[in-house]
UniProtKB/TrEMBL annotation:
Name of the protein in its database record: Sugar ABC transporter permease
Entry membrane topology: Multi-pass membrane protein
Residue stretches making up the ABC transmembrane type-1 domain: 87-440
InterPro entries: MetI-like, MetI-like_sf, UgpAE/MalFG_permease
Transmembrane segments: 30-53, 91-111, 123-140, 312-337, 358-380, 421-441
Coiled-coil regions, chain positions: none
Species the sequence originates in: Leucobacter iarius
Location of the protein in the cell: Cell membrane
One Pfam family per UniProt: BPD_transp_1
Main location: membrane
Gene3D superfamilies: MetI-like
Amino acid sequence: MATTQTEVMRRVETGGRGSRHRRTFSRRQLVTAGLFLAPALILLGALVAYPVIYSGWRSLYDAAGTDFLGLGNYVTMFTDPETFTAIRNNLIWVLVVPISCTILGLIFAVLLDKIRWGTAFKLILFMPMAISMVAAGVIFRTTFQENPQLGAVNAGLVAISDAAGTSAGYPGARPRPDLGIENRAGGLELVSAPGRAAEFPLVGVKPDSLPAGAKPAVAAEPKAGAVTGTVWLDFVKGGGGTVGALGDGKRGLPGVEVQALGADGSVIGTATTADDGTFAIEGVGGGETTVRLPASNFTAGFQGVPWLGPGLVTAVIILSYIWIWAGFAMVMIASGLSALDRSLQEAARIDGASEWKVFTRVTVPMLAPVLVVVFVTLIINVLKIFDLVYVIPPPSSLPDATVIAVQMWTVSFGGGNDQGLGSALSILLLVLVIPSMIINVRRFREDRSR
C-alpha cells in the first residue's frame, strides 16, 4: 500500500513538472514567433493600418484639417460631376479589362500549348510586363498622337487614305496676291472674259510633291463657246521666273477640278486639268463666266483620328493595359494548364468530342479556379489603376478619362489641395477593393485545404 502511494505521488510530481515544462515551452514559442513577426507587424501597421485609419479620420475634416465636417466630404464627393465621371470610367474598366485579359490569356495559353515554338511566343507576349506602366503610357501616347507626323497609327491610316486616293490633291495651295483671284469659302474664283484664258498661278505646293506626270505649264488656247485656262505652280525651284507669268520651267498642276458658275452661282460645267495644267469647259456660252477651283482641291483631307480626344482616350488607355496584362494572364493560365490531368481531355477525344467541345466542356471547367484568381486579381488592379490614366491623356482629355485614383490625387495634390475630400475618395476606393480581396483570400484558403 505504501509503495502504491509513493508511486502515485511520484507520478503527480512528474506530471506537474511536465505541465510546467509544456507551459514554459509554449511561452517560448510565442515569444519566438512574436520576435519573428514583429518587423512584419510593424511594417504592416506603419504602411497599411495607420494610413487607412488616418485617411478615415482625415476624411471627416475640411481642406485645412481644422473644422470637423462629419460626412460632408462624402456628400460633396457623391454630388461632384467629376467623381461620377471617375466612377463611370472605373465601371467601364471593371467590365471590359478583366474579361478581355482573361479571355485573351486563356486563348493564348491554349493555342501556344499546341505549337512547337510556344515558349518563344509566350516570352514575346509576356515582355510588356517588363516595361513600367509609365514607360508603356509614354509609348502609347506617342503611338496614338493625332498628328500623323508623330503618331504611328495615324501615319498608317493617312498612308492608306492617300493610297486609296481619298486625300486632296494640293493641300495648302493658295493664289498669288493682287492677281484678281478671290479666295472665297467655296474655293478660288476668277472672272473669265470671252476670248481670254483664266489663269490660276498658285503657290504653297512643294515641287517635290507634284505628281510624276506633271508637265511644264502652257497657255490654254481660247475656244468658241468654252472657258479655257491654266492652273500652274508659280514657283521655279532654285529661284527665278516672272511672278504670275507662265514659262521659265513652271509646271502645271494636273488633276485639279475646275467649275464654271452661272449668274446665280450654280455650277454649269466642270473639267479637270491636264498634265500641263490646262483645262477647257465646253458649252458655257460666250459671255463673262466665273471660274472656280473648289476648296476640295486644297483642303488638308484626312489627317487621322483623334485617338487621344475625349471620345476615344479611355479606349486607348484600356488597350494599353490589355497589351501589358494579357501576358500575365496567359502565364498564370498556362501554369494551371500544365498541371491538368490530360487523360480527361484524351478520353473526351476518344469518345468523339470535337476540339471545341474538349475546350469548352473539359479544359475551361478544369481551369476555373485559375481563371477566377486571374479575373479577381485583374479587378483589384483595375480598380486602383493610376499610372496609365495619368500619363497617356493630354491635359484637355484627362477630365474625361479620369478614374477614382487619379481623381483622388488631383483633388489632394494636383491643384485641389483638399486632403479631406481626397481622403474620402481613398476610403471609397478601399471599400470597392475589399470585396475582391476577400474573394481572393477565400479562394487561396480553399486551394490550400485541398
